[in-house]
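Hello forum,

I keep getting stuck at the same step: I have a sequence, I want structure tokens, and every attempt I make locally crashes halfway through. Rather than fight my setup again tonight, could one of you with a working pipeline run this one for me? It's a single chain of 516 residues.
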Amino acid sequence: MRLPQISQDIGKTRREIVTLRGINYSDQTQDGDLLDSVNLSARRFPYITTRRARQKQKRAAGADYSGGTALTAWGKLVAVEGTDLLYDGTVVGTVTAGAKQFAVVNTKMVIWPDKVYLDMKTRTVKPLGAKQTGSGAVFTASTMKVTGWGNLTQKFSAGDAVTISGCTTQTANNKDIVIKSLTADTITAADNTFTAATEKSAAIQIERKIPDMDFICESENRLWGCSSEAQTIYASSLGDPTNFNVFQGLSTDSYALAVGTEGSFTGCCKLTSSVLFWKETKLHKMLGGYPAEYSLYTYDIEGLQAGCHKSLQVINEVLFYMGLHGVYAYSGGTPSLISASFGERRFTDAVGGSDGDTYYLSVRNGTEHHLFVYETQARIWLREDDTAAVDFARIGKDLYFMDGGGAVWLADSGGDDPGMEWMAQFTPFYETAEGRKAYSRLLLRVELPRGSYLIAQTRCDGQIWRESGKIVGRDAAVIPLPIPVNRCDKFEIRLRGKGPCTILSVLREFRVGSDV
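Reply #2:
Ran it on my machine without issues. Output:
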């Protein structure tokens, strides 16, 4: 009888390379996942490296930005500090204090909810709406002439849609009209617009109205917005965010449409040639190039979480946003969850930014804040630190953010920070699966320049952390660090250090037992 042949590999040492991955808070972990990280980056993936240094920005006078509540950019940084509006660090106007939304139409940067705009040519702040009140007016079939009202051309222009009210002699002249032409004291409208009359009322009013909207965005040179109270979507006239009531059957007209879905709007944004209006469980997609062509389509999909309208960021025609169950990527079909690695953790108050390739996301979890970074090419998440970002702004490839204290930072200065501390804690390794495998050691390969250091700590079966190795930087290109591991069922590794460092690989060496 022939006896069973015994494998010659019993007891032999084998080596495996652990693939480095990102943050994973879920139960479905793999070797190489991180349980936590501080100040790390995957910009050199498949290597994990320390993030680049941030750079604090200064105002034109040389002082730091401080106490700000809003940030955007259009060629230069635009910030709100208290009631000051700053362009490139210089005060150019006054707004109300607090958070803002911004959208640029033509040469006008709309500032919401203030209903004002920054004229990018003159660097002056002007109101979107306009109102003028006076005593007495003379109406003909097509004109309205006033006396002693001041210069009408200072507030209104030809093409404006205005509302006239306060007429008592001929109430039919209380109506919405479109100004055909305008002088300092006379408004001309289309023929037979008015009923001839002489008004003596002291409370006649001409007003260019701007609707109340919860969220705004720009698309195809129009200002779009939505109102939860009115359950209505609005679009301004083409190239003119000061007019929302021009309805003359032209391609340049304003637009308004009521919707009938449940719930409040949570945000809006542009994606390719469509405008997206979000609720938490619905998406309204507006298609078309002009009012007569506009069509609204409604989808029951994972929507945008309330309070997370600033998480909307488009990177290479893919929209990233925070939904009720995590972060999603949307390009026109079904949204894809890209944060399954967050497990059951839920975040709120998400604020997003992008440098054109990487998605930055500041979130809150109870009283804790986290700044996560998603590498769109590697498709992994890393946590930088506990920064609470108020807004992000991009100029070219440079991404800026305003922190919770109102300071403004360049997210990536291009250089390393020799004084920055960092940390990487791997998810647990289970080493004696079915009793056939026992680790003897792990071997790290790192790039560690002179002036930096790295400390490796290990923990077996939930016991205390113990230092298992330390290296200091030197001029050598690659430095190995062996990490001995005691025999146990579960062991954990935590790396921490100071100064620039790149983890090139983790090699695990183990002995193989018998399958018999």
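The first strand starts at residue 13 and ends at 18. If your local run keeps crashing, start a new thread with the error log.
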